[in-house]
Amino acid sequence: MPADVQDKKAEFGINLSVVIQGLLLATTIGFGTRLVNSIDTLINEVGKLTTVTTLNSSEIKHNTAGIANNKFTLKVLTERVDNHIHKGEKHE
Q1: Are 29 and 17 in contact (CB under 8 A)?
Q2: Rounded distance, CA 73 to CA 11, Å?
Q3: Can you give the pLDDT at residue 10?
Q4: Is-contact 11 3, C-beta < 8 A?
């Protein structure tokens, strides 16, 4: 808004001050908007990482159960081979 002032230098200074304040406000709003968008993006990415972590955790539990099952199967097969060897059976 132009100021109604008799002194032209003072009028110019006041108007310049108003323009600078407007630019600072616009810049602040711009940075604020970018900050909010950055925070939204960060929250979205954290959500994705949480989902991936949950899936990985589930896979690890599944794989651990599979390893335990395989270990048991190997133990049973090892006992059968040992029994077979101790019986002295021969194969052609």
Answers
A1: no
A2: 92
A3: 81
A4: yes
The C-alpha angle with vertex 70 and arms to 78 and 57, in degrees rounded to 5, equals 155
C-alpha 38, offset from chain centre = 13
Q: Is 54 helix (H, G, I), strand (E, B) or coil?
A: helix
At 9, which helix (H) or strand (E)?
Answer: helix 8-86
pTM for the structure as a whole: 0.48
Residue 2 has pLDDT above 60, yes or no: no
Identity at 38, one-letter amino acid code: S
Residue 15 and residue 3 in contact, taking contact as beta carbons nearer than 8 Å: yes
Tens-digit pLDDT profile for residues 5-16: 567 788 788 888
User: Does residue 6 sit in helix, strand or coil?
Assistant: coil
Tell me the C-alpha to C-alpha distance, in Å, between residue 91 and each of 15, 37, 85. 106, 74, 11
